[in-house]
Design goal:
Number of helices: 16
Largest sheet: none
Strand content: under 5%
Distance between the termini: 35 Å
Structural class: mainly alpha
Helix content: 55-70%
CATH architecture of one domain: Orthogonal Bundle
Number of strands: 0
Shape: globular
Radius of gyration: 18 Å
CATH class of one domain: Mainly Alpha
Order of helices and strands: HHHHHHHHHHHHHHHH
Length: about 280
């Protein structure tokens, strides 16, 4: 049944099916928050998980990085790609399992959501963040976690929402009593993520509702749009426009942004490579 317009669907935040943050993801987030991480620490976390090790090596040897040497070990990957990049690969691989822990009927939509989040993460790293900002990749990867409670607790409703192609994302959420941004902020709070993750989850569609939008929020909002432009949208609908004020805050003019959209479209295959390996 569709909730009455204006009435928000109730989420049971204490339900046993509520999505949890994988322990390995939590470990990587802790490492990302430090500036004294040793290579051996990261290597030890990865090699304890053979399947994860294989994914990291596959990714390091993929066309995405286009290295001229074969990467044969985790230590070699860290040496060639850097700890920051390998940590991003690890959290992407781990979170792919989290996104795909859904009923069979949702697997296609879950893959689309994950692909959108990975694309947003990739584009976020290619925008200029301040050096003291949170990791842009991880912010982008987790910006849309607000869909996970709905997928876990109302899978039939989730499917039905996406079968209605005549409504925009905002109209769909209003009609079905859904607020994935609010739920994402609640998820980030329950997962005990740092404050920027709450802000990004809550405002990535509407950064201008913040009195003074932080730069990381603006950049994730722009990256979210570029992911949609690259064909990695959760919704098969027209791309939501980016407001000129957001571009101004990001330090972009319309011509530059148009070029970025064109480049994003060309990047589609590169992003598909990443997602296919992580989901494989």
């Amino acid at each position: 049944m569709i909730p009455r317009a204006g009435k928000l669907l109730t989420i049971n935040w204490h339900n046993g099916d509520f999505p949890t943050l994988p322990g390995l993801a939590r470990k990587i987030l802790s490492l990302q928050a430090r500036d004294d991480v040793e290579m051996a620490e990261l290597e030890e976390i990865i090699v304890q998980e053979p399947a994860l090790t294989m994914k990291i090596l596959q990714m390091a040897n993929s066309a995405f990085f286009n290295l001229r040497v074969e990467i044969t070990s985790v230590r070699h990957a860290v040496t060639m790609l850097g700890m920051e990049t390998v940590m991003r690969l690890v959290i992407s691989a781990v979170m792919s399992g989290r996104f795909m822990t859904v009923p069979r009927k949702l697997e296609g939509l879950a893959k689309r959501l994950y692909r959108h989040c990975v694309a947003t993460a990739i584009f976020a790293t290619e925008l200029e963040f301040e050096l003291d900002e949170p990791d842009p990749y991880t912010l982008g990867l987790l910006h849309d976690i607000g869909w996970l409670p709905l997928m876990a607790q109302a899978p039939d409703m989730f499917v039905s929402m996406f079968e209605d192609i005549n409504l925009s994302r905002r109209e769909l959420e209003g009609a079905w009593g859904v607020d994935h941004q609010l739920w994402g902020a609640k998820m980030a709070e329950i997962w005990e993520l740092p404050a920027p993750f709450l802000t990004v989850a809550y405002r990535h569609h509407q950064p201008l509702l913040e009195t003074a939008p932080p730069r990381y929020l603006v950049m994730v909002a722009v990256a979210h749009h570029l992911a949609d432009a690259a064909g990695q949208s959760l919704f098969l609908r027209d791309i939501e426009p980016v407001e000129p004020e957001i571009l101004a805050l990001a330090g972009l003019d319309e011509a530059t942004f148009a070029d970025m959209e064109t480049a994003a479209i060309r990047d589609r295959n590169r992003i598909e490579t990443v997602c296919n390996l992580m989901l494989g």
